[in-house]
Amino acid sequence: xxxIAIVGVAGRMGRTLxxxxxxxxxxxxxxxxxxxxxxxxxxxxxxxxxxxxxxxSAVDSPEAIANEFDVLIDFTAxxxxxxxxxxxxxxxxxxxxxxxxxxxxxxxxxxxxGEKLAFVFAPNMSVGVNLTLKLLETAARxxxxxxxxxxxxxxxxxxxxxxPSGTALKMGEVVAESLGRTLKEHGVFxxxxxxxxxxxxxxxxxxxxxGDIVGEHTVMFATEGERIEITHKASSRMTFAxxxxxxxxxxxxxxxxxxxxxxxxGLG
Length: 268
Ligand code: NAD
Hints:
Layout: E1 2-7, H1 12-22, E2 27-33, H2 45-49, E3 58-59, E4 71-74, H3 78-90, E5 94-97, H4 104-112, E6 118-121, H5 127-143, E7 149-156, H6 166-178, H7 183-186, E8 187-188, E9 203-209, E10 215-223, E11 226-234, H8 238-251, E12 257-259, H9 261-264
Parallel strand pairs: 1-2, 1-4, 2-3, 4-5, 5-6, 6-12, 7-9, 8-9
Antiparallel strand pairs: 7-10, 10-11
The structure holds nicotinamide-adenine-dinucleotide (NAD).
Nicotinamide-adenine-dinucleotide (NAD) is lined by residues 7-8, 10-14, 33-35, 75-77, 80, 98-101, 122-125, 240.
């Protein structure tokens, strides 16, 4: 049985992860970590997540439960995730990371940990999204350089702090790579005022933030006379949480390295 601890257990994803771990027979819930100084320290994490008392109290650091877990699942914020990578590398733990919004420098730092521990990092843990990435690769290869304009449109709830979403960027990257382009050169993240007509090779991004939308992504390939849209809609955070628990079970048996959900699902 893989013993799991959840960091950010009081967050939207943290609470959903408690539910997902409880529904999976191959793992046990070993602990939950909340922000240092939080009034929730000591609270039963089952009660926090609305699944009833589990007899596991929230603590304020991975150190406090260092001997009790094998895999740390982290859906928090970039700085917190990097600190947890350092802790897990030092203590022989594995990680599943869903945090998004890392800067280029933070991504380089994260990549470096691939030599020190086994971890899965994915901006979207849903099985459907990861299959969608495969479909996008196929579509881009078949259509992209034949005069199709490519646009990525995403929508999320009003509390999301980063934009475009990590998933939208990943989708853009997959399409760009399939066409020998890069987002650095061809990504267009803002259009305002007299910005002129689009260029042939640009990959445009549009962001919607509203209400309680869990996560919707569309990649559009449009040309004169037709338009193809590949869309994924998440209707519950449970899809991300179940993917993360599946990744935790998988990474528990892996050697050092930085893995993706494509690796977990055998789509790599
Ligand atoms: P949230 O704000 O609801 O939760 C984050 C939690 O982390 C908060 O409860 C906060 O108190 C806690 N936290 C902050 N610092 C901490 C620390 N030092 N120790 C312990 N806990 C700490 O946000 P959310 O909607 O749950 O999203 C969290 C992250 O996960 C975001 O980056 C989001 O984009 C990402 N996300 C990824 C996926 C995916 O599939 N990869 C899916 C949904 C969300």
